[in-house]
Amino acid sequence: MDAPSAGVYVHLPFCPYICPYCDFAKWAWDGPRAAEYLNALRAELAGAPPVRARTLFFGGGTPTTYAPAVIGSLIDRVRTRFALPSDAEITAEANPDPGLAGQLEALRDAGVNRLSIGVQSFEPAELRVLGRRHTVADVAGAVHAARAAGFTNLSVDLIFGAPGQTEASWAASLDAAVGLGVEHVSCYGLTIEEGTPYATWFARDPAAFASESREAAMYALAIERLRAAGFEHYEISNWARPGFRSQHNAIYWANDSYLGLGVGAASYLGGVRSTHTRDLDAYSQAALGGDPIPGESERLEGPKQAGEAIMLALRTAEGVDVDAFRERYGIDINERYREVVDDLVAAGVLSADATQLRLTERGRFVANDVCGAFLAG
Ligand code: SF4
Fold it and tell me: What pLDDT, in 10s, does the model give residues 265-308?
């Protein structure tokens, strides 16, 4: 059987410091541990199931805590092992810390052609409360240096709902992102994750955090501001200038195959979704020893697979194409999910006709609930 065509994700979990709201698989930079992890990752990569890579994405953590030459050597290995095309989208997440600007030329030369920059806010007080150590000037410096290095595809991440944030300060951050001329903006509502310092703070003082209605107002503001600036709202949390949608993330939303390498990484291959352990030492030991990486896996089939596929497609502006869905999964949505669809349409969160299902603007803010209805249905 031919190797499946897949997006390849590589997790680089170290960060220069740890943000108090973060629930990713991440650790503060530690040279010996980071070197061991790299060896583990190389070992996993060498023994990973064969795929034909469509895209490559370095996420974290903060991938740019590793030197550009390290990222370059990983790109070369992925190219050789998984036949990554020479013009494929290769994204690296990056933090706009003062050191980033000086790395960008080498990163571009190494083959990275898209940067996803974790800006979060353009308001100094909000950056402080989010525990971020970069300044607004660092962000402008990073974007300027990225352009000088030849990057033509830049994305920034922003957070709304941070303590102390107002609708006016959120609007100012959106305008500042637009003003930098980036091609892509991701906006995420702050979520309180169990076990983080923010969870402790929230338990003590919930009023410090934005209410759901304020978050909804901020989300609506993002939709309005970014649309007015010429961005397409192509996925719940993502806006792009025409031609600059994330090709890697599109693979997830299309329920296509992906291969995840590294601690905590997830794969979806041959109908099986698997997730590696988030225990760094257990991951490294298994990968270095050539053993299966501990974790969980589950075969998605039948109603579960269909529900997942609907949930993912509904995240996108195009939504679910009823005919294409019937062809791929053998299920007529308008029959199988009639009641769910009718209820969601009546609630004003879904628009549906014979050929397409889409979230309404209100539905996008409560997407998890709406999509969850199809998983249960
Ligand atoms: S830089 Fe990103 S991955 Fe690292 S701790 Fe902060 S939010 Fe988490």
Answer: 999 999 999 999 999 999 999 999 999 999 999 999 888 889 99
Tell me, in angstroms, the distance from the centre of ligand 1 to residue 333's CA.
39
pLDDT tier for residue 1 given thresholds of 50, 70 and 90: low
Cβ–ligand 1 contact at 127 (below 6 Å): no
Residue 118 CB–ligand 1 contact under 6 Å: yes
Q: How far is the CA of 343 from the centre of ligand 1 (A)?
A: 39
pLDDT range class, residue 371, cuts 50, 70, 90: confident
For ligand 1, whether the C-beta of 18 sits within 6 Å is yes
Q: Which CATH architecture has domain 302-376?
A: Orthogonal Bundle (1.10)
Q: Whose CA is nearest to atom 6 of ligand 1?
A: 19
Ligand 1 pocket check for 63: Cβ under 6 Å: no
Strands 27-28 and 154-160, how do they pair?
Answer: unpaired
Could you please report the per-residue DSSP string of 316-371? BSS-EEHHHHHHHHS--HHHHTHHHHHHHHHTTSEEE-SSEEEE-HHHHHTHHHHH
- Provide the 10 A C-beta neighbour count for residue 17: 12
In tens, the pLDDT along 70-115 reads 999 999 999 999 999 999 999 999 999 999 999 999 999 999 999 9
pTM: 0.96
User: Helix (H, G, I), strand (E, B), or coil: what is residue 98?
Assistant: coil
CA 363 from chain centre, in angstroms, equals 20
pLDDT above 80 for 356: yes
Burial tier of 150 (Cβ tally within 10 Å: 0-12, 13-18, 19+): exposed
What is the spatial distance between Cα 373 and Cα 337, in angstroms, rounded to a whole number?
10
CATH fold of the domain at 5-252? pyruvate-formate lyase- activating enzyme (3.80.30)
Residue 143 pLDDT > 90, yes or no? yes
Under 8 Å between Cβ of 247 and 56:
no
Q: What are the residue ranges spanned by the domains of the chain?
A: 5-252, 302-376
